[in-house]
Amino acid sequence: MPFNHNDHYHPLLLRQVPTGCRRALDVGCGTGRFARRLAARGVEVDALDPAREVIEAARSAPPAPGSGTVRFEQVDITRAELPARHYDFISCLASLHHVPFDTVTKLRAALAPGGVLAVLGCYREEWPMDAPFSLLAVPVNAVMRLATAATERVTGQPKSPQETVVAPVARPSTTLREIRDSASRLLPGSTVRRLLFWRYLLVFREAATR
Ligand SMILES: C[S@@+](CC[C@H](N)C(=O)[O-])C[C@H]1O[C@@H](n2cnc3c(N)ncnc32)[C@H](O)[C@@H]1O
C-alpha cells in the first residue's frame, strides 16, 4: 500500500480517545482500518459509510484482535438517526468534507457527556497562506512514500482483499480559515490544528455534565 496520509495519523487520533471509552462511532469508515484499531482497544464501534463496496470489504476483513467489536453499516451520515448522548468517541477520518460542515452539530448531539469528537479533515488550499506548508509537505511526502515502498518490498506482504478496494474521495471545498470559523461557532471550545500532510485535526470535548 502506498503511504496513506489518513492511516499515518491513526496514532494521533487514538490519543484523543477518552479514558474509559466504551462506545465509539466512526463516520465514513471506508474499509474500516481505524474502526478495527478502536475495537482492538476494547471499544464497541459503530462504523458508517454509504459506499456499498467499502462496507462489504470492511465486513469481510478478519475481526479486530481485541475484545471490542465493530458493527459496519451502509449509511449516509446526513440521513442516519444517531442515538442522543451515546458515544464516548466519534471520529471522522477524511470524510467530513463529503458532507456539509454543520453535520458536526448532529455528531455533537450524539456525544455522551465528556465524549470527544475528533475530525481528521481535508481542506481546500488557499494561496498564499497555505503554500509554505504544502511546499514543506511535498518532499517529506516523497521520502515517506519511498520508505513505505521499500518496507513493502522487504516484507513482501501480499495485499489483503480489503486493501484493493479504494474508498470514494472528494475534493474539499472549504478552506482551513472557514473551518476554524465554523468550528468556533458550532463547537465552542474546540481546537483546530494544522497537520503536515494536507490535513487538520479538530478536537471537541463535550462537557462532562449537560
Ligand atoms: C477519503 S475516504 C476515507 C475513508 C476512511 N475514513 C479512511 O480513513 O480510510 C472518505 C469516506 O467518506 C465516505 N462518505 C462519503 N459521503 C459520506 C456520507 N454522506 N456519510 C458518511 N460517509 C461518507 C466515503 O464513502 C469514503 O469511504
Structure description:
This protein has a seven-stranded mixed sheet, sandwiched between helices. The protein starts with a helix and ends in a 5-residue tail after the last strand. The protein has a single domain (5-124, 166-205), classed as Rossmann fold, CATH 3.40.50. The mean pLDDT is 94. The protein is globular and about 50 Å long. Helix 3 (33-39) links the parallel strand 1 and strand 2 (44-49). It contains seven helices and seven strands; from the N terminus they run H-H-E-H-E-H-E-E-H-E-H-H-E-E. It is 32% helix and 22% strand. The longest helix is centred in the C-terminal third of the chain and has 25 residues, at 131-155. It has 210 residues and is of the alpha/beta class. Bound molecules: S-adenosylmethionine (SAM). The site of S-adenosylmethionine has 22 residues, from strand 2. S-adenosylmethionine is lined by residues 6, 27-30, 34, 48-51, 54, 76-78, 93-95, 98-99, 167-169.
Relevant terms:
alpha/beta, 7 strands, 210 residues, binds S-adenosylmethionine, Methyltransf_25
- Residue fraction in strands: 15-25%
List the strand order in the largest sheet.
3-2-1-4-5-7-6
**Any ligands, ions or cofactors bound here, and which?**
S-adenosylmethionine
H-E order: HHEHEHEEHEHHEE
CATH topology: Rossmann fold
Largest sheet: 7 strands, mixed
Counting DSSP H or I runs of 4 or more residues, the number of helices is 7
Tell me the count of domains: 1
Query: Which residue ranges are poorly predicted, with pLDDT under 50 across at least 5 consecutive positions?
Result: none
CATH class: Alpha Beta
Radius of gyration: 17 Å
**Helix/strand-derived class?**
alpha/beta
How many distinct beta strands?
A: 7
Going by CATH, what is the homologous superfamily? Answer: Vaccinia Virus protein VP39
Measured distance between first and last alpha carbons: 44 Å
Helix content: 25-40%
Mean pLDDT figure: 94
Shape: globular
CATH architecture: 3-Layer(aba) Sandwich
Pfam families: Methyltransf_25 (PF13649)
GO biological process, one term: methylation
Protein name: Methyltransferase domain-containing protein
Domain Methyltransferase: 25-115
